[in-house]
Amino acid sequence: MKKYELEVKKLCEDNKIYLDMKGYKKLEALDDDRYFKLLITPIKNFINNNREQDTTLEAGSVKVYAKKKEEVKESSGETIEIIKEIYPKIIKVLKKYVDLREDYYNLIVLWIIGTYFHKNFPTYCYLFFNAMKGSGKTRLLKLISNLSKNGEFLTSLNEAVLFRTAKNSTFCIDEFERIGSKEKSSLRELLNSAYKQGINVKRARKVKKKVGGEVVEDYEIENFNVYCPICMANIWGMEEVLADRCITLVLEKSNRPEITKLLELFDQDDAIKEIIRTFSVVSEVKLPKNNIYTWNSYLLDYYNNNYTNNTNNITNINNTNHTFFNKILETSLDSRNLELFFPLFIIADLCGEDVLKETLETSKKFVQEKKVDDITESKDIALIDFLSEQEENKEYIEIKDLTKSFKVFLEEDDENAKWTNTRWVGRALKRLALIKEKRRVGHGVEVVINFKKAKVKIKMFKEVEPKENQMKIDKEEEKVEVEKIK
Fold this sequence. Notes:
alpha/beta, five-stranded parallel β-sheet, globular, Rossmann fold, 10 strands, three-stranded antiparallel β-sheet
């Protein structure tokens, strides 16, 4: 076997790559300078129809690579045109296989396109799909993994897999439950950082060295870049800090059999194959000079020139991106929300004015929904916490009285107090399945609360000291026994 073939083989073995079409793409994604040099000879052999010497890679793979090298142009204008063309094609594929809220398609497609260019951005948001069983989240994740750059569909993820394989991968993780648990704290810490560029993980690797003629064990420090696109799905929801790095989409069960009964034969779908072929060309061309890095200059100019924060008075600033930036400023997004959506705004701008307009409107709506959800979700946990601290009571309690006590427990200010009323508490108790019995009386609604269930539920959200917890359980059991005797 020739030297270059041995080098290719070793490169593939080191990175667990098979010499087929999928492996070919992984090989390319290594960004290794050896890659092109190693393939010069087999490409020439194929072009010259010398098939016998073409032993390193499949002929079809070599043909794709050779053709791609001939067709790829470094023109940023061509890249933009290709992105414009591919956007509606991915929308069509998504609508064929998954039934989603209309504004979800836009965000998911932009996110998929962005996986091929995410290194152009200082941050890249996570996608999180929250849904009950049978809502199509697994199908959607598989579809995204097929369309994204080096997509990997996983049903679990640990710390080692993340930092060793994150480079040039897109992870689509299903059944990602209990990410907030204590045993997953190391993975959670990595995920909290992996959406930002420049975060490295250091690990010590055991090696053998010769010292004075003897072989001794030593350690070498390895650096791993964990920055990569990740989308996740589960039923229970996301831990609060990690959720802050996600754009969260809530999926519902579909009643459209023409979609739900389709088999997930994504690797045989001609439209998906065409999209992947198009991306294989686009991914070799960098985005036009990235305007995300000129945002700070624009913003400083804007405020230093005494512009008010009234977006109706925004005027043109001496900046090539002022029109694009003015539109972003009008959304009033800031802090983390702006950081998450900014890469999607840039991709949307490349897709066309209409797509950018839709994305800007969608972002405003999502941020507003997130504010409401943050209040709702945090109060759900607070309500469970409140009930878990109450003594067991099998009697009917008026929801009105329960609401008053809960407000005292929350110590809310006037702004947040408006969210806490008898209607909200009643719905929350039902949503959390904490009602044993319920009846309507002349002055309102009374319920019997499942306090024991609340004590179990709260363990999912906060740590309870073992001794304290055991004392509470012992007291509860003692009371139950006393009541039985009575």
